[in-house]
Design goal:
By secondary structure, the protein is α/β, with parallel strands linked by helices. It is built from 13 helices and 15 strands. The protein folds into 2 domains: about 5-10 and about 250-370, Alpha-Beta Complex (Aspartate Aminotransferase, domain 1), CATH 3.90.1150; about 15-245, Aspartate Aminotransferase, domain 2. The strands form 4 sheets. The chain has a 7-stranded mixed β-sheet with strand order 2-8-7-6-5-3-4, with helices on both faces. A 4-stranded antiparallel β-sheet has the order 9-10-15-12, with helices on one face. A two-stranded parallel ribbon has the order 1-11. The two termini are about 40 Å apart. The chain binds pyridoxal-5'-phosphate. Pyridoxal-5'-phosphate (PLP) binds next to helix 3.
Length: about 375
């Protein structure tokens, strides 16, 4: 059986989430209709709002459903711009959903550097906040390539003191570590269902009491006027089912399996990015000097192990990892591979991946040594 270790790209859908999707599709009904079918669909959406809110410790009223993490990021950033932000401070390792939305917003962008382990530099932030006008600050909770967890609570104290807006992309963190939205002190937070075992194409923006959200999509006024368009009832039902089952404690067991693989990587001459920082327990970002990411991914795929290059764009092409470059490892950027587990991953999956990768890297190095001789 093939081994799937690309859960940070998309988690396998939990069977209960698939069932919830199918049931909602079968039941039908538009949540805006006043008849019985409409009211039943509305009940599904509102129950899901409570479940998704509970996952991050907020009331249902703080949850706005979107088409995914990308749209949730955009709703937050664009709302902050409408609310008067004059500049955008963006973490150097943020996801494209944040980086590209920030670029499109037409404001001055300041790139917030990270250290060699991928952690955002809080002293830099304190200085920048003091030096300029009202800012929206974007800092992800956990990085999609390395799993590095950012010091969000400490950053939020600085942002609050400067009266700014902190947007947190928690798309990769949700379901893998416990999240207390209020404890983190963020103003807005983006979530996505397909990273934790729900369907693709549905997510949510969580908004605290200080955030003033602005409508992006005009029309029928759904989602309290913030996001028009008939709700994706089936997707929302699947999101809620996955949220109810999220079990960060179970996922935490993977840290030991992941670290065993990490030790093998280092023994073979490779590196593990972000190892010195707190990380998601199921994410490993390896760099194999001299062995291009694409070849590693193809070799592992042929061996029945599915992982991804650090940065695969939508065309499927592999680029040098922007994240490794931002962390000050440009030499490693072309040879980075991300391995990520999820709710169904076993110790055996990690071991088989380690076996396959070690064999491939040994073979690659032997070939290079022969060619050089
Ligand atoms: N933010 C991060 C950190 C992600 O990893 C992703 C997806 O890879 C997104 C945002 C985008 O989420 P979605 O695919 O739901 O639009």
């Amino acid at each position: 059986m093939a081994v799937y270790l690309d859960w940070n790209a998309s988690a396998l859908v939990r069977p209960e989430a698939a069932t919830a999707v199918a049931e909602a599709l079968r039941a039908g009904g538009n949540p805006s209709s006043v008849h019985a079918a409409g009211r039943a669909a509305r009940a599904v959406v509102e129950r899901a709002r409570a479940d998704v809110g509970a996952l991050v410790g907020v009331a249902p009223s703080a949850v706005t459903f979107t088409s995914g993490g990308t749209e949730a990021d955009a709703l937050a950033i664009e709302s902050a711009v409408v609310a008067g932000a004059r500049r955008i401070i963006v973490g150097a390792t943020e996801h494209e959903a944040v980086v590209e939305t920030a670029k499109a917003a037409g404001l001055a962008i300041e790139e917030w550097p990270v250290d060699k382990e991928g952690r955002a530099d809080l002293d830099w932030l304190a200085q920048r906040l003091a030096a300029g006008p009202w800012a929206i600050v974007c800092l992800m909770l956990a990085n999609n390539e390395t799993g590095v967890i950012q010091p969000v609570a400490a950053a939020s104290e600085l942002v609050r003191a400067a009266d700014g807006w902190l947007h947190v992309d928690a798309v990769q963190a949700v379901g893998k570590v416990s999240i207390d939205f209020n404890g983190l002190g963020a103003d807005t937070m983006a979530l996505s269902a397909h990273k934790l075992g729900g369907p693709q194409g549905v997510g949510a923006l969580i908004a605290g009491s200080r955030a003033r959200l602005t409508r992006r999509i005009h029309g029928g006024g759904q989602e309290r006027g913030l996001r028009s368009g008939t709700e994706n009832v089936a997707g929302i039902a699947g999101f809620a089912a996955a949220a109810r089952l999220a079990d960060p404690e179970a996922i935490s067991a993977q840290a030991a399996w992941r670290d065993e693989f990490g030790a093998r990587i280092k023994a073979a001459g490779g590196a593990v990015l972000g190892e010195g920082a707190p990380r998601l327990p199921q994410t490993l970002c390896l760099a194999a000097p001299g062995y291009p990411s694409e070849l590693q991914v193809i070799g592992l795929d042929l061996a029945g192990v599915m992982v991804s290059a650090g940065a695969a764009c939508s065309s499927g092409k592999v680029k040098a990892s922007r994240i490794a470059e931002a962390m000050g490892h440009p030499d490693l950027a072309p040879c980075v591979v991300r391995v990520s587990g999820g709710w169904a991953t076993t110790e055996d999956d990690w071991r088989r991946c380690g076996d396959a990768w070690t064999t491939l890297y040994d073979r690659h190095r032997a070939r290079r040594a022969t060619a050089a001789a």
